[in-house]
Design a protein that fits this description.
Blueprint lengths: L5 E5 L7 H9 L5 E5 L2 H10 L5 E4 L5 E4 L2 H25 L4 E5 L6 E5 L3 E5 L2 E5 L4 E6 L1 H9 L3 E5 L2 E2 L5 E2 L3 H12 L3 E6 L17 E2 L1 H8 L4 H14 L5 E6 L5 H6 L4 E3 L1
Parallel strand pairs: 1-2, 1-13, 2-10, 5-10, 13-15, 14-16
Antiparallel strand pairs: 3-4, 6-9, 7-8, 11-12, 15-16
Helix pairs in contact: 2-3, 5-7, 6-7
């Protein structure tokens, strides 16, 4: 590759303007790796299948989705199926030669399954085991080959564990693993908010810029899934230099707005 790629993490919320992101990228310069979320599609199908998504909170206060066999099958149907295929279809309509892959394909994203999660339920500490884990290895050779061949990879869960089985993983951790293996000159994350907020209910509380120490300080005061996100963002800085932009994915031109400096810039 002549230059480092840009990583685009597209949130899976129902109000994310995926088509707007794709149209912006169609006119942009550079190579892109897209990590695709699909939680709204997953949640909708899970309800229709009478298997609603379950969330657990670890003993250290981090929230995550509980992934049993049924949950993993729904992930395969949505993240690696409907949502990703529709995204790739939209890319092709807009002149982007996208190729959709899950972490299973070609051993693209390998990880280690969590042995157990110490979680709190009804005020008690319990041990939960599920089909989730953390990515540990990226097939950089395959990813680099696709980029050099003119493809735009659109990646989704599930990933594969150390024994070849499918497992769930957090997209923030996947972005970090890609950045560690092949580097990136910039990372864009599109969410259902103007950027990082000091008050989640107040859009005017947007944090315009952050450095690493300030990011650590924010991590100490937030709760729930946002705390997990800030932890993942903090870990990105330990893997190599890159600017990170957290931007609004709901607007008409999400990528162009983020490129113009809107959102939260962490550097």
């Amino acid at each position: 590759m002549s230059e480092r790629p840009i990583i685009i993490k597209v949130g899976g919320g129902a109000s994310i303007n995926a088509e707007g992101i794709i149209k912006d990228l169609a006119g942009a310069c550079g190579q892109f790796i897209i990590v695709l979320g699909a939680n709204a599609v997953r949640n909708d199908l899970a309800i229709r299948l009478n298997s609603p998504v379950q969330t657990i909170r670890s003993a250290s206060g981090y929230d995550s989705v509980y992934s049993d066999e049924t949950a993993l099958e729904i992930i395969m149907m949505t993240y690696a199926g409907l949502a990703r295929n529709r995204f790739v279809e939209c890319c092709q309509k807009n002149g982007i030669n996208a190729i959709g892959l899950s972490g299973l394909d070609g051993g693209l994203i390998r990880g280690r399954r969590n042995s157990a999660i110490r979680a709190r339920e009804n005020g008690k500490l319990v041990v939960k085991r599920d089909l989730s884990g953390k990515p540990t290895e990226i097939n950089a050779k395959l990813l680099t080959h696709l980029l050099r061949s003119g493809y735009t990879p659109v990646l989704s869960i599930p990933i594969t564990d150390e024994n070849g089985y499918a497992i769930n993983a957090d997209n923030d951790n996947i972005v970090a693993a890609i950045h560690r293996e092949i580097g990136s000159k910039r990372i864009y994350q599109f969410i259902e908010a103007p950027g990082l907020l000091t008050d989640i209910d107040d859009p005017s509380s947007l944090i315009r810029t952050l450095n690493h120490p300030e990011l650590k300080a924010q991590q100490a005061v937030v709760k729930g899934r946002m705390r997990r996100k800030l932890l993942a963002l903090s870990q990105l800085f330990e893997l190599g230099p890159a600017d990170i932009v957290i931007a609004d994915g709901r607007v008409e031109t999400p990528y162009l707005d983020a490129e113009a400096g809107k959102g939260t810039i962490i550097s």
